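> tool_call: predict_assembly(chains=two)
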Amino acid sequence: MDTNKKVSVVVDAMGGDFAPVNEIAGAIMACKEKGDALKIILTGKEEILKKELSKQNAAGDIEIVNAGEVVTMEDSPTDVYKSKPNSSINVGLALLKEKKADAFISAGNTGAVMAASTLKLGRIKGVGRPTIGSIFPTDKRKVMVFDVGASVDCKPMHLKEFAIMGTIYMEHIFGVKNPSVGLLSVGEEKEKGNELTFEAYELLEKSGLNFFGNVEGRDVLNGKVDLIVCDGFVGNIILKFAEGVLDLLKAKFRSYADKSFGNKLWMGMIQGTLRAILKDFDYQEYGGVPLLGVDGVSIIGHGKSSPLAIRNMIYRAEEVVRKDVCGKIREEINK
Amino acid sequence: MDTNKKVSVVVDAMGGDFAPVNEIAGAIMACKEKGDALKIILTGKEEILKKELSKQNAAGDIEIVNAGEVVTMEDSPTDVYKSKPNSSINVGLALLKEKKADAFISAGNTGAVMAASTLKLGRIKGVGRPTIGSIFPTDKRKVMVFDVGASVDCKPMHLKEFAIMGTIYMEHIFGVKNPSVGLLSVGEEKEKGNELTFEAYELLEKSGLNFFGNVEGRDVLNGKVDLIVCDGFVGNIILKFAEGVLDLLKAKFRSYADKSFGNKLWMGMIQGTLRAILKDFDYQEYGGVPLLGVDGVSIIGHGKSSPLAIRNMIYRAEEVVRKDVCGKIREEINK
C-alpha cells in the first residue's frame, strides 16, 4: 500500500479485562507516537468512550463508532455473533468488510473474536482453517506455534496450511528468511507420532517449505526451529500451560518470601533481577497475534492486555497491513 | 503381602544415561537404608556389574542376573523386544513373570520398557491401554497427569481407564482420598474440546469417580484438581515442555550472569535461593512412575536419574508392591 497513506485500525474498546481504560490509553499512546501513520477507530458504547477519552486527555486521530452491545468473557463464542449483532466486535469487523478500515484489534473474548472474524471477513480462498499463532520465548530466537486454539480438530492438510501461513508471517513480520518448520510430536523420528502427524509429516515433506521434521514438547522452548505446527487442541493446552508457569513461579516466590522475614527482605532485593530474567515469560509483553487465513487483518490480544500491549497490537496491525500479509497468503496457499 | 517378607526389586542396571554407576549406587543406598525390607536383583552384563559393585564397596542383599544385551536410547522400542531377547529389560521382566521377583525398575529407553512390560507381563484383564503418569509441581499439591506417553492414540474409554487407575494410584500411594479428576481440554465448559474429550466427558461424568469436569493447560500447574487425564500424545508434549521450562530458566540465568562480572557475582549469591525455589521443577527429584494397567509392577524413571532418583524408584516399587496397586486396579476396572 501507499506508504504515505494512514493505516486505520479499529480498536475493540470494550474488549479486554480493563476495557475501555487500557484500550483507550493504548490508542492515545499509539496516536502520540505515530500519529502521521495511524488513524484509530474505537468501537463501543459511545457515551462511555467519550467520557474516558476526555478523562485521559485524548489527542490525535481517534474516532468513535458506536456499538451498543458488549461481548463478555462468559458469552459463547459461536452464539454471540448472532445474539449480539451490535457488539463492538461485530461493528468493528463490519468496518473492515465495508473497506472503511484496514485492521481490527481486540483483547476481548478470544473465541468470539475468532468466530466473528471468520464469519464476517470470510476465509481466504484455499484456506480450510484459519489459525492463530503464539510466540514462545527461547534463549536463541522467537519461536511461533500455530495453531494455539483457532482450529481444534484438524486434518493433516490443515497443519500444512498453518505451516504455509506461519512461514509467510515469520518471513515478513519477523524478517526470518526461510524459517524452519517443525511438526510437534512425541519423538524426533518420523515413526513417532499419532495418526494426524504421520500424514501431516508426508504432506510437509513434499510442501517445498523448510521442513525440519518432528520436534518434541521441549523444543518449543529451546529454539530448535522457528515455527512449530500442531492442532489447536494441543497448541492451546501448551500455551495455557506456559502461562501457568509464570503464575506458578510467582506463587513459589511468594511462598518463599512468606517463610520468614529474612526471606522476605532477600526476595525484595532480588526481585528486580528475577523480573528481568522472567520478562520473556510474560505473555502480555508480546501484544497480540493475528488470526491468519481470514480475509482481513484481525489481531487478537490477551484479556489482561496493558496499555503498552494494546499499543503494540495497534503497531502489529499496521505492520501486517503495510506488508500485505493477507495478499501473500492468498498467493502462496493456492500454489 | 506379608509385611515381614522382603520385596525383591529388579534394577535394570544397564538402563540410564549413567548406567551402571548410578543404578548400582542407588541400589547400594537402598540396601543400606532398608536392607531388612528389600532384596535387589541387578540385570545386565555380569562382568561389568561385578566390577562396579566391588568398586563401590557393595553391601547388602544384592544379586546379579546376567543379561548379555543392552538396549540403547537409539533402539526402536517395538523392534528391540524381539531383536535383543537377552536385554537387561527382557531378562528383568522375565523374572517378574516367573514370580522370581516382585517389581522391575528402569531408567532406560522409556518406549522399550513400556513395550516390553506390556508384552512380557500382559495387561490386567479389562484394561484396554496401559498408562504412565507424571507428577507436576504446583503450589498447593502434587498433580498427576495420565497419560504422558504410553498410549498416543486413545479412545474415550481409555481416558476413563486412566482416570480409574490414576485414582487408585493417588489414593494408595499418595494418600489422597477420593482424588478429583479433571479432563484436559481447551476450555472449562463442557462444550469446549475436541471429538475425543466430548465423549470422554460423558463417560467420566457417569463413572462414579470424583469428576471435576474440563480443566485447561494452566490447571496442570495450579493444583485445581488432583488428577488430570488426556491422551498420551498431549500428555507427552506437556511433560517434555515442562522439562524444557527448567532448561530455559537455567539458560536465562546463565546468559544474565554472562552479561557482566557484577551480574555473575550477583547470580552466584542468589543461586542457592533459586535452586531451592525451582527444585520442584526438577523431574529427576521424583524418581520414577509406574506403568499402570500391566499385570505386574514396572517403574520407569528419567534417563538422567541420579543415584538418589534410582533409590527413590526402588522405594516406590516396594510401596506399589506392598499396597497391591495391581490387585486394586484388577478389582476396580471390572466393576
